[in-house]
Amino acid sequence: MIQNVIDVVESQTTSQSLFSKQTYYTIKGSDKDGNFEVHRRFKDFVALRNLLAQQWPGCYVPSLPGKKLFNGNDPKTIHDRKKFLNAFCQKLSLLPHLFQTDAVSQVFLRSKDDKIYTKLESIKSQSTQDLLQKYQTTFADILDTAIDASTLKEIDNFADQVRNYSIKLKSIKKMIKDSVDSGKKYNSCLEEIIKTRLINFENSFVTQFINKDASLLIFNRIKQELADTYQENQVFRLNNIEILLDLIRLESKDCKIVLRQISDRINLENKVKTLENKIIELEKELDKLNQGKVSFKNLIKQKSPEDAKKQVEQEISESVKEIKLLQDLIILINKILALKERNRYENEKNTQFKEIMEILQQMELDSIKLESSYWGFILNETNQLIAQTQNQSQIEDQINTE
């Protein structure tokens, strides 16, 4: 089986006019149809996700970062979007029923159209019958699995669990964000101390006690080497806890998606109720027609009683058929939520958290090694300076003794 590979590798902002800029994100990868490389705007991603959510009710569709009315092309927004757009693509590649649709594999990943979002937005909605047939084919493995009232209760309990989880995530998110902000302030202060304050301190105070011999100053002596090492390795600029913040942000969005998946079922149930009420009204109208009563609407349209009866009977028949299709679809969506989506969500959270912890652990270890190497360089230079000072002192003592 060919594995889907997809990454958002870079971004490029172009100026359309003095007040208009557009940012394109480069997507590269390969699938069963071969290699692809395209440039897409954020609104293209949004149009794709909206289409997938509409075409796959009750199914998980990865989240996207929120829209911004202004500053959508500033460096920070672009940096954040690139991370989350890449996460969107990575998750999409693990969902074959979504990734292999024409909307994704052909339009989004291969079309050379400049305005992909308009092409995606123009794709027609599927009928309930088409949607049901698609689900029956895609999820054939659970068609014969029976579910009962207790299973539906589990879905409702799962929704409550996700809601509570979402509330807790908000406080955790604030705590981690505060930690990230504190880390940035610490790094900024440390950079100022290392690159400026210590050098100025030596020049202003220490130099007074060494007869203004610049060779005996530590940071002044190695300031260029320090600056080069600082810039090259970004020592003390690393803020690894930020990866946890990204995880929490994705988690929060996923909570909303799960709740929308469950609400998709509720929306379909409401459609059934609406159609049932419509049938009741149509049956009342049919009774009046059978009694020889003609409605004001039919008088205006100049319909004969027989034509009016046929139309009402046809509407009732179509509504009954639509209700049956919707009910079958709801049953299948309940199976998807109970047997697939709930397990996928729980397993993904567990796996994702472990992967993030492993990455964070390695990043912290690398940071410690980097900082240790950096300070080791300073310590080595300091020891050499101390040794040099001691040697000079011994030489001077020897000369004085002689």
Automatic annotation (TrEMBL):
Task: Please provide, in alphabetical order, the Gene Ontology terms of the cellular component aspect for this entry.
Answer: early endosome; membrane; phagophore assembly site
Localization terms from the record: Cytoplasm; Membrane
Q: Which Pfam families does this one have? A: PX (PF00787)
Stretches of the chain forming a coiled coil according to its record: 258-329
Is the keyword Ligase assigned to this protein?
A: no
Q: Where is the PX domain?
A: 3-115
Q: What is this protein called?
A: PX domain-containing protein
